[in-house]
Design brief:
- The chain is α+β, with helices and mostly antiparallel strands.
- The protein contains 4 helices and 6 strands, in the order αααββββββα.
- It is elongated.
Length: about 130
């Protein structure tokens, strides 16, 4: 039982979580950049719109990850008969999303940005800005 508890604890602690502040900071580093630079680094936006003279580009990401699984089985052998019984606990798939919106002026300068969704997915979706 002690070994089983250790495995469960290891699985729980191995799932690192990103703080929303880390996503905010990563996204804010792109403030003042040109939208063409974002498109070169991030790829084409999934949607674009204009609201009250300000243009917005949106990137929408979706991730499907397999959750960690533990297989437990019990088997036996005796008198030419082999039998086993097993089950999988935890496991399955987990879906997460991230929507990033970037507002930019007529000259292409990024003036605001926001995100919503899973902090881990958003952190993975927003590229690191190279320091100049």
């Amino acid at each position: 039982m002690r070994y089983f508890s250790l495995v469960i604890l290891l699985l729980i602690t191995s799932c690192a979580s990103v703080n929303p502040g880390q996503v905010d900071s990563k996204l804010a580093s792109w403030q003042g950049s040109n939208i063409s630079t974002l498109i070169q680094v991030w790829g084409l936006p999934t949607n674009e719109r204009e609201i009250q003279g300000l243009k917005y580009a949106e990137w929408n990401s979706r991730e499907i990850k397999n959750k960690p699984a533990i297989n437990i089985g019990v088997g036996g052998f005796g008198s030419r008969i082999f039998g086993s019984i097993g089950t999988t606990i935890f496991g399955g798939q987990e879906e997460s999303h991230c929507l990033v919106q970037v507002g930019y002026k007529e000259d292409g300068t990024v003036v605001n940005s926001s995100w919503q969704g899973d902090p881990n997915t958003c952190h993975d979706s927003i590229p690191e800005k190279e320091q100049s």
